[in-house]
Design a protein that fits this description.
Blueprint lengths: L2 H24 L1 H4 L15 H12 L5 E9 L11 H16 L1 H4 L5 E3 L4 E3 L5 H9 L4 H5 L12 H12 L9 H5 E2 L2 E2 L5 E2 L2 E8 L1 H5 L17 H11 L10 E5 L3 H12 L1 H18 L2 H25 L10 H26 L4 H31 L7 H29 L11 H16 L1 H18 L17 H12 L7 E9 L8 H16 L9 H13 L10 E2 L4 E2 L2 H14 L1 E3 L2 E6 L1 H7 E3 L6 E10 L5 H19 L5 E6 L1 H35 L2 H24 L11 H26 L5 H28 L7 H23 L1 H8 L21
Antiparallel strand pairs: 1-7, 1-8, 2-3, 4-7, 5-6, 9-15, 9-16, 10-11, 12-13, 14-15
Helix pairs in contact: 1-14, 1-16, 1-17, 4-6, 13-14, 13-15, 13-29, 14-15, 14-17, 15-16, 15-17, 15-29, 16-17, 16-26, 16-28, 18-29, 18-31, 19-27, 19-31, 21-25, 22-23, 23-24, 26-27, 26-28, 27-28, 27-30, 27-31, 28-29, 28-30, 29-30
C-alpha cells in the first residue's frame, strides 16, 4: 500500500469516527433527558435554602399571592385610577377572570377587611366599591350607604362613597382606606384622585400545585408549570385600558420564571448569528473557500455536539448556559485559526502535494499539541472552577464548559485540520504586511523591555487598590428593562411608599428527629424570644403558635370548647405539662382559634398548618415558624448586621434548649445568602483558577519560573477587569462574576501560545538569538493570536444584541477582557520573558524543553 493510500485511509477513518460521534450527539435531541427547566436562581446545599424548602414542604403557605396593581401607563404621566370608568373596567376584568372556571377554581376564599366578608379572586378598590354600592358588604350599613348601585352610579355617587370610606378611622387612629391607595388627593370639586392601588388575589396552593393539583410547582415536571395559570390571569388584566379616559394600565409581578425562560429563548437565535459571523471572519482571514468549509463544518458540528450534550445530560437551558454556545464558538474559531494556519504553513513549505498536505495535517496537530493542548487544558480548568459553586446554574455552567471546550478542541483543532488536509492549498503569502509589523514590534520589546514591564505593573497596582466590584441582586441585571415584569417593579417603586414596610422573613424552629417542641421550657423560651423581637419592632405582629396556645387556654377558661388543662403557668398561660400542650395543639390544628380579647383575630385551621407542623394523632410539634420583619432586605451590609444580631438573640433564648435548631430563612434571607454565594464564587473562582492553571503549567513546562512569568500578565488582566467594572459601576451577577476566571482561561490561552511559540522558534533555530525567536513568533503565532482575538471580540459583540441586560454587560466586559489579554500577551509578555526568563540562552544539546521537535514544524 502506498503512503498516499495509507494516509487517505487514515483520514477517512478519523472523519468517520467524528461522523459517528455526531450522530450520537444529535440523537440527544430525541432520546435525551426530559428535564429541561427549573426555578431560576436556586442555591444547593445551603442551610437557609434547605430550611426554606423544608418549611414550604411541611408547612405549606395558606395561599400564594397573586399581586397586580393599577397605575399610570407611564410613570411620567398623571392618571386617576379612581375614575369611575377605570373602576368599571377593572370589575369587568375581575368578572372575566372569575367566569373562567379554569382560572377561578384555584383562588382561595379569604376574609378581607375592606368589605368585612369572604372574597375570592383578584380584589382591590374597584371590587370593594362595587360590593359596598350593591349592598353586598357589611360596610354598606356601617357607612350608611343608601345610594345608587354600581352600574347606575354617577361620578357624584362615587365621590360620595369614597368620601365616606376615606373618613373611616380605625382604633389606632389611622384611615385604612386612605392608606390603601397611593397618591390620594382631593380635587377642588370634592372628587378624589389617586395614582395607584394594589389588586391582590390568593391562590389555593393545594389545588394549584399540591399533590393532587393541576399544575407543578417547578418547571420541567410532567404537569404544566403553574405560571401558565398566572399568565392566563395576566393576559386578561394586561390588555390596554382604552375607553376609560385615563392613561392607566394594570401591572403585575406574575410569571417570573416564565419571563426568564422567554428571554433565554429569545437569546438562543444569537447562536446562529454568531455562527454566521464566525464564518465571515474565517473567510476574510484565509481567503479560501476550502478553509471556510472545513472550519464551518467544524463549527456546525460543535453546535450539534454542545446542544446534544446538554440534552443527554438533561441540564436545563438557563440564562447562564445559553451564553456558552456563543462563547465556545468564538473559542472554537481560535482553535481553527491556529490549526489551519499552521497546516497551511507546513503544507506550502513541503510542496503542497497530496502526500505533503496529508502529512502536514498530522504534523500540525502534533506540533500544536503542546501549546494548543495545554491552552485547552488550562481553559478547561479555569472555566471548570465554576463547577464547585453552590449556585446550581453556575455549577452546571462549569461542567458544561469543560465538556464544550474539549469538544471544541476535537472538532476545530483536529477534525477541521484533518478534513482540510485532503484539499488543495494555495501557496500565496497572505497577511505578510501585518506579520512583518508584528515581528518588528516583537523585536522592539526585546530591545526596550522595561517600558513594557513598568507600565503594566503600575496599572496593576492601581487596579489592586481599586478592588473588585460589588454584588447585588438588581432585577435590571437579569431581565429586560422593557419587560412587563421589570416595568411593573420600576413603576411600583415610584408609586408606593415602601419605607419601614420591610419584607417578611421567618425563624424556622425545628425539633430533632425524635424531639418535640410541645414542651413548657421550649415554649417559654420561644415566648421570650418573640417578646424581644417585638420590642425591637422586628415583626409585623402576626401570631405565633405560642400565641395560639395562649388564646386557646383563655378561650377554654371563658367557657369555649376544647381541652382544659389543670396545670397552667399563670404568668404565661402556657400549660406546664407536655401532654396538655399536645392536646391543646390538636384542638388548634383541628378547629383553629380566636383571640378572646379581639374577636377579629382569628386563625383558621388552614393557617395553623402554615405556621406549625403538628401531628394530628399525637399532637407532637416538630416544626414551627416565627414571623419577623426584615426592614432593609436589599441593603446587604445592613442584612449582615441584622442577621448577626438575630442569631445572637436566638443563642440567648434557645441555646439551652437541647435538640432544638433555629434557622433564619424566607425570601429575604435566601437572597442574602445567594448574593454572598455569588461573591464567594467570584473570589474562589479566581484563586482556584490561578492555582490550578499554574500547577498545570508547571507540570507541562517543567519550569516554575517560566510558568509564573507566563501566567503573570493574565492575572494582571483579571485585576484590571475587576477595577474597570468597579469604576464603571458594573455589579457582579450570575454572568459577570465568572469574568475573572474566564480572563484566566482565555488570557492564558494567548499567553501559552506566546511562550510556546518562542520556545518552538528557539528549538528550530538555536543560534538565531532572542530577537529572531520573538520576531518569528510574533509574525506567525502572533498573527494567529491577533486574528483569533479580533474574532473573539466580534463573537462576544453578538451578545450586545441580547435583550438580557447581564448578557450585554458581559459582552462589554468580555470585549474589554480580550483587548486587555491581547495587549498583555502580545505587547507585554515577550518583554517580560526577554527580561526575566532564561529563554535568551540557546537550548542545551539534546534539550527539548517540551514535546516539540524542530522537524515537526
Amino acid at each position: 500500500m502506498s503512503e498516499l493510500s495509507r494516509l487517505r485511509i487514515q483520514r477517512y477513518a478519523v472523519l468517520f469516527f467524528f461522523f459517528i460521534v455526531s450522530i450520537f450527539m444529535g440523537a440527544g435531541f430525541i432520546f435525551g433527558s426530559n428535564e429541561k427547566s427549573r426555578p431560576a436562581f436556586t442555591l444547593e446545599n445551603d442551610p437557609v435554602w434547605n430550611a426554606g424548602e423544608r418549611a414550604d414542604t411541611l408547612m405549606p403557605p395558606l395561599g400564594r399571592d397573586v399581586p397586580l396593581f393599577v397605575g399610570p401607563l407611564d410613570s411620567n404621566v398623571e392618571a386617576n385610577v379612581l375614575a369611575l370608568p377605570v373602576l368599571r373596567e377593572l370589575v369587568r376584568r375581575y368578572d372575566l377572570v372569575m367566569a373562567d372556571s379554569n382560572i377561578s377554581k384555584h383562588f382561595v376564599s379569604r376574609y378581607y377587611w375592606m368589605v368585612q366578608k369572604e372574597v375570592r379572586g383578584p380584589w382591590g378598590m374597584a371590587e370593594t366599591v362595587r360590593s359596598i354600592m350593591n349592598q353586598a358588604s357589611p360596610v354598606s350599613d356601617q357607612i350608611g350607604w343608601i345610594g345608587a348601585r354600581f352600574d347606575e352610579a354617577t361620578d357624584k355617587d362615587l365621590t360620595d362613597l369614597l368620601t365616606r370610606l376615606f373618613e373611616v378611622e380605625a382604633d389606632n387612629g389611622q384611615n385604612p382606606y386612605q392608606t390603601f391607595v397611593s397618591g390620594l388627593k382631593k380635587n377642588p370639586d370634592g372628587s378624589w384622585r389617586a395614582s395607584a392601588f394594589y389588586i391582590l388575589g390568593v391562590a389555593d396552593t393545594e389545588s394549584l400545585y399540591g399533590p393532587a393539583g393541576e399544575f407543578s410547582k417547578a418547571p420541567g415536571d410532567e404537569k404544566p408549570f403553574f405560571e401558565v395559570w398566572e399568565r392566563a390571569i395576566d393576559a386578561i388584566y394586561a390588555l390596554p385600558m382604552t375607553g376609560t379616559g385615563e392613561s392607566v394600565h394594570v401591572w403585575s409581578f406574575l410569571g417570573l420564571d416564565s419571563e426568564v425562560n422567554d428571554e433565554v429563548n429569545q437569546t438562543l437565535p444569537l447562536v446562529g448569528v454568531s455562527f454566521l459571523l464566525m464564518i465571515i471572519v474565517i473567510g476574510l482571514f484565509f481567503r479560501d473557500w476550502r478553509d471556510v468549509l472545513s472550519a464551518g463544518l467544524g463549527l456546525g458540528l460543535l453546535m450539534i455536539w454542545m446542544f446534544g450534550t446538554q440534552e443527554w445530560l438533561g441540564y436545563p437551558r438557563t440564562q447562564v448556559s445559553s451564553m456558552l454556545p456563543i462563547l465556545l464558538l468564538a473559542l472554537g474559531v481560535d482553535f481553527s485559526f491556529h490549526g489551519l494556519h499552521r497546516w497551511r504553513k507546513l503544507a506550502t513549505e513541503t510542496g503542497a502535494t497530496n502526500v505533503a498536505r496529508l502529512l502536514a495535517g498530522w504534523a500540525s496537530i502534533k506540533a500544536l499539541r503542546p501549546a494548543l493542548g495545554l491552552a485547552t487544558i488550562t481553559t478547561m480548568v479555569a472555566f471548570g472552577t465554576a463547577a464547585f459553586s453552590s449556585i446550581q446554574d453556575l455549577a452546571e455552567w462549569g461542567r458544561l464548559a469543560v465538556i464544550y471546550i474539549f469538544e471544541g478542541y476535537l472538532l476545530l483543532g483536529i477534525f477541521a485540520v484533518v478534513l482540510r488536509s485532503g484539499m488543495k492549498v494555495s501557496t500565496y503569502d497572505y497577511k505578510a504586511t501585518l506579520a512583518t509589523k508584528l515581528g518588528k514590534f516583537g523585536v522592539f520589546q526585546v530591545r526596550r523591555p522595561l517600558f513594557f514591564i513598568l507600565i503594566p505593573i503600575l496599572i496593576t497596582a492601581i487596579a489592586w487598590i481599586i478592588g473588585q466590584p460589588g454584588t447585588d441582586f438588581d432585577v435590571h441585571d437579569y431581565l429586560d428593562s422593557n419587560s412587563r415584569m421589570v416595568r411593573s417593579i420600576d413603576i411600583a417603586d415610584e408609586l408606593f411608599d415602601q419605607s419601614n414596610q420591610g419584607e417578611p422573613g421567618i425563624i424556622l424552629v425545628e425539633a430533632g428527629q425524635d424531639g418535640d417542641l410541645a414542651d413548657f421550657d421550649t415554649l417559654i423560651a420561644l415566648d421570650g424570644l418573640m417578646t424581644e423581637i417585638r420590642s425591637r419592632d422586628w415583626t409585623y405582629g402576626d401570631p405565633t403558635i405560642v400565641d395560639l396556645v395562649q388564646w386557646q387556654v383563655k378561650s377554654v377558661s371563658n367557657g369555649g370548647p376544647g381541652f382544659r388543662s389543670k396545670n397552667i403557668d399563670s404568668a404565661t398561660l402556657i400549660p406546664k405539662n407536655s401532654a396538655d400542650i399536645r392536646s391543646i395543639l390538636k384542638d388548634i390544628q383541628r378547629s383553629g382559634v380566636t383571640d378572646p380579647d379581639n374577636i377579629r383575630s382569628y386563625t383558621s385551621a388552614r393557617l395553623v398548618k402554615a405556621i406549625a407542623h403538628i401531628d394530628a394523632e399525637t399532637g407532637r410539634l416538630s416544626m414551627l415558624s416565627l414571623p419577623i420583619k426584615v426592614e432593609k432586605a436589599e441593603d446587604w451590609v445592613w442584612m449582615g448586621a441584622f442577621k448577626t444580631d438575630l442569631e445572637e438573640i436566638l443563642e440567648t433564648y434557645l441555646d439551652s434548649e437541647d435538640d432544638v435548631t433555629a434557622t433564619l430563612t424566607g425570601n429575604s434571607f435566601r437572597r442574602f445568602v445567594y448574593v454572598n454565594a455569588m461573591t464567594d464564587s467570584f473570589q474562589s473562582s479566581i484563586y482556584l483558577a490561578i492555582v490550578a492553571c499554574l500547577i498545570v503549567l508547571i507540570l507541562v513546562l517543567r519550569d516554575v519560573w517560566l510558568s509564573v512569568l507566563t501566567i503573570a500578565p493574565v492575572v494582571a488582566v483579571s485585576l484590571w477587569l475587576n477595577a474597570g467594572m468597579n469604576i464603571f459601576g458594573a455589579s457582579l451577577n450570575l454572568v459577570t462574576l465568572q469574568v475573572a476566571s474566564l480572563a484566566i482561561g482565555l488570557g492564558l490561552d494567548f499567553a501559552i501560545h506566546v511562550t510556546q511559540g518562542i520556545r518552538e522558534q528557539r528549538l528550530r533555530n538555536p543560534n538565531g538569538g532572542l530577537e529572531a525567536w520573538v520576531k518569528q513568533m510574533m509574525s506567525h503565532t502572533g498573527l494567529a493570536l491577533f486574528a483569533s482575538g479580533i474574532t473573539d471580540i466580534l463573537g462576544f459583540s453578538v451578545l450586545m444584541l441580547s435583550i438580557m441586560p447581564m448578557f450585554t454587560m458581559f459582552s462589554k466586559v468580555m470585549i474589554a477582557m480580550v483587548l486587555l489579554a491581547m495587549a498583555a500577551c502580545l505587547f507585554c509578555l515577550p518583554a517580560l520573558l526577554a527580561r526575566f526568563s532564561r529563554l535568551a540562552n540557546p537550548p542545551s544539546q539534546g534539550s527539548s524543553g517540551s514535546n516539540l521537535k524542530a522537524s515537526s514544524t
